[in-house]
Amino acid sequence: MKKGLIFIAFSTLFFSTMEIAIKLVATEFNPMQLNFLRFLIGSIILAPLALRHLKGSGFTLDRSKLLYFLFSGFMCVVVSMTFFQMAIVYSKASIVAILFSCNAVFVIPFAYFFLKEKLTKLSVVSLIISLIGMICIVNPKNLTNVTGITLSLIAAVTFALYGIIGRKGSLKYGFDGIVQSSFSFLTGSIELLVLILITKIGFVANWLQGAGLSQFASIPVLQGISWSTFPALIYLGVFVTGLGFSFYFLAMEATSASTASLVFFIKPALAPILALFILGEAITLNVLSGIVLILAGSCVELISDNRQAKLEKKSRLKTVTGASTAHVR
User: Fold this and answer.
1) What sequence ranges are listed for the domain EamA (predicted)?
2) Full domain range(s) for residue 123
């Protein structure tokens, strides 16, 4: 358990500094370029851990699994994380960190509709409290950054959908989180690289510029990498994306999925504090209120998950006991 808590601590630290590190080099890289570089590095760091998990499992990469990884990688790296990168360009790192952490909230209704998972009363309460917290942070009466907030919420919603896709893959193919993330990050990076190369084609670049999307025209691949930006790039790729997810999955192995999820419950509180000291981003009263509410909603969901896990454990024990009794008879 002590080892698991150490893994949770490191994962929380790396994930809580993600938006800050991106903000520090956001002007040096194109959002899609930085997205490609950090997830490519992250997939390489995760690969040894994933291969260790696959050892002796009889895993084969057939057409069905490849299509699955291509789809999950597209949803995570190309869609969700691109919106996430752009959100940091247009908004404060602390706001993006808080709103993106709410992806766990969006998983609740998605799991109900797509996975037919039971929607408990506590889950509904958690959803309502967290939504009120998001409204406090967004502050509709003084909404000055519509673009940044919209991009943050789209990133959170699409990442929640990626989570649902991951659960479906786990149920169908028996993947664990490490294998799922490693292969999805790699395929997503390759897909993003293809899209980046397409934007360099003359008529495509001209069309994008004419449509007012010059940020997506002729996207560089290696431009911007220098001695001044290299440390931040390595930190994002190796520590945040690679080791951050590695420690998160190792925490799951050492404790449980519910306990490891504390990472995303602590991040909304820790990230704004780090942004205050590193970037000088002030924490306003409405943001502070939103943080408290989101943490409260997360705690309610954690209680709901633990209660549901205990009920399922009791149900399994009853089934085993009943089967044993019937066998004796």
Assistant:
1) 3-138, 147-299
2) 2-299
Q: Please check whether residue 75 lies inside any domain of the structure.
A: yes
pLDDT tens-digit readout, 297-312: 777 777 776 676 676 6
Domain tally, the chain: 1
3-state secondary structure the chain: CHHHHHHHHHHHHHHHCHHHHHHHHCCCCCHHHHHHHHHHHHHHHHHHHHHHHHCCCCCCCCHHHHHHHHHHHHHHHHHHHHHHHHHHHHCCHHHHHHHHHCHHHHHHHHHHHHCCCCCCHHHHHHHHHHHHHHHHHHCHHHCCCHHHHHHHHHHHHHHHHHHHHHHHHHHHHCCCHHHHHHHHHHHHHHHHHHHHHHCCCHHHHHHHHHCCCHHHCCCCCCCCCCCCCHHHHHHHHHHHHHHHHHHHHHHHHHCCHHHHCHHHHHHHHHHHHHHHHHCCCCCCHHHHHHHHHHHHHHHHHHHHHHHHHHHHHHHHHHHHHHHHHHHHC
Residue 247 belongs to some domain of the structure: yes
Q: What is the pLDDT of residues 163-216, one digit of tens each?
A: 888 778 877 877 777 888 889 999 999 999 999 999 999 888 888 888 777 888
Residue 312 in domain: no
The verdict on residue 231 lying in a domain is: yes
- How much of the chain exceeds pLDDT 70, in percent? 87
